[in-house]
Amino acid sequence: MGKFNSQISVGVVCVILGFMLVNQFKTLMNQDNTLNLKGNNSSDITVEIDQYKKEKASLEGKIDELQKKVKNYEDSAASKSASTKNLLDELDKTRILTGETDVKGPGIVIYINPSNKIFGNNLGDNAADKITDKHLVYLVNELRFAGAEAISINDIRIVSRTGIRTAGNYILINDEKISPSNRITIQAIGDEKLLYSAMSFPEVFSDFKDLADIKFEKQDNISINKYNKSYEFEYAKPVKD
């Protein structure tokens, strides 16, 4: 019993360290996004960016290592009692729902290949001439209605807090830029027959006419990476009875 309690204690410590690393990682990302370029030449800026990238990779590695340790402690705790196992099963479902874990499974992959006119140097300011945030939001909604359990766009995990919006000549997804002039790949895990059937309706891609060539296919083993940002709630609080 004492050994089990010590394992749980170490697991709690690992969780706390994980949160600390996530917060440090977020602070680093904020610094990376708000670099002051005044007074620095391009060489200094490049060195500074490379340093941030190395620190980011190091923190990501530490977070992954701690998460693996926490998972091992959870598996050990789950083997002790049925109630603990049920609790951890619910925790795993919550992690999938919030995108906090890598997932894999059957589903479909959609390839959006912009038409030739979009590959030119001048994309134009007219939203009717290019793929926009509205096209991607519409497809994400259609996939969710068809029962998709996990979705990614260009390997960016789509969760409940994901924002998708057009910004100039780019589309921002979770604050990451993707170009509407390059191929966009959407992955969705779920019942592949239902997802494929939902995407087969002609109306689904009617707004993409003359903008892109659309192809989609079933796949038995799709991998989608976890959401790479931390959850913070400043205003929403749980209601207590």
UniProtKB/TrEMBL annotation:
It comes from the Bacteria. Residues 49-83 form a coiled coil. Keywords: Coiled coil. It holds the Pfam family DUF881. Gene3D superfamilies: Protein of unknown function DUF881. PANTHER family: UPF0749 PROTEIN RV1825 (PTHR37313), UPF0749 PROTEIN YLXX (PTHR37313:SF2). Belongs to the UPF0749 family. This is Uncharacterized protein YlxW (UPF0749 family).
